[in-house]
Amino acid sequence: MGKVKKLSVSVDEQTLDELRRLVPHLTVSFLVDDALRQQLARAQLTKVLDELEALHPPTPEEKAEGERLWREAVSSSIQVRSRRSPQATVQPSPPSGKRSKTKVKSSSRAS
Where are the domains of the chain? Predict the structure, then answer.
């Protein structure tokens, strides 16, 4: 890790409470740094993919096939529960013109 810069961030209270409950051994600084690194990696990959697409744009047929495959994958997908966090449910989000991301939902269960 390089030089460290201190900053102030605001986070959703429920998200923070859930993280602290699930991974109490990880610091908020570590979690924020990890999230920023993951976002940076996605942004870099998106940039490369956008550059490749600009050099070799998909044909209308390829684009339609990609959208069909996406709809098929989403419609046939089932919610996945992690063994480590049985309350976390992963669901794909639909394409919105830009590259899609995966959303993680947390469901609360009564104890």
Answer: 11-73
Predicted confidence at residue 72, as pLDDT, reads: 87
Give the integer Cα–Cα distance in Å for 82 and 9: 28
> CA-to-CA distance for 40 and 34, rounded, in angstroms?
10
The predicted model scores a pTM of 0.55
Q: Which two tokens stand for residue 1?
A: 């890790």
DSSP code per residue over 67-109: HHHHHHHHHH---EE-SS-TTEEEEEPPP-SS---EEEEE---
- What is the distance between the alpha carbons of residues 86 and 77, in angstroms, rounded to a whole number? 18
pLDDT, tens digit (0-9, with 9 covering 90-100), for 82-92: 555 555 555 55
109 burial type by CB count under 10 A (0-12 exposed, 13-18 middle, 19+ buried): exposed
